[in-house]
Amino acid sequence: MTPPVPRVTVTAAAEDLVRTLQAEHGALLFHQSGGCCDGSSPMCYPQSDFMVGDSDVRLGDIAGAPFYMSRAQFEYWQHTQLIIDVVPGRGGMFSLENGRELRFLTRSRLYTPEEAANLAPLS
Question: What is the pLDDT of residues 60-113, one digit of tens each?
Fold first, then answer.
């Protein structure tokens, strides 16, 4: 049996930054921003500092950190796999990578029909 296709993945560079932030802050959580102040960046928080609501969907984990987005936003993104990367620049003002001259970035790609038929379940 083929393992389910993950809805969110992480590049090696982003995983390294996540591990650094985990060492400094403990358990982390990601939430895909839907806009406003910080654009559409994946935001990284200490797990204890972010309240996940009934309107949030857990897409999976990256480097051991749960990754969420709003259910309404997921309706638009459900046909794409999110790939969390890191690039030079300023992080979101409330995201833990801020001040490191690196920021998390969401890339995406459409699932193939075969992948779409074998997606990991939402939690």
Answer: 999 999 999 999 999 999 999 999 999 998 766 788 998 888 999 999 999 999
Q: Which residues have a Cβ under 8 Å from the Cβ of 33 and sit 6 or more positions away?
A: 39, 40, 41, 42, 43, 92
Name the E strands within the chain: 8-10, 28-32, 42-46, 56-62, 65-70, 80-88, 102-110
DSSP class per residue in 40-71: TPEEEEEGGG----TTEEEEEEETTEEEEEEH
Predicted model pTM: 0.91
Amino acid at 98: N
Q: Classify residue 81 by its DSSP letter.
A: E
Indicate the pairing of strand 42-46 with strand 28-32. Answer: antiparallel
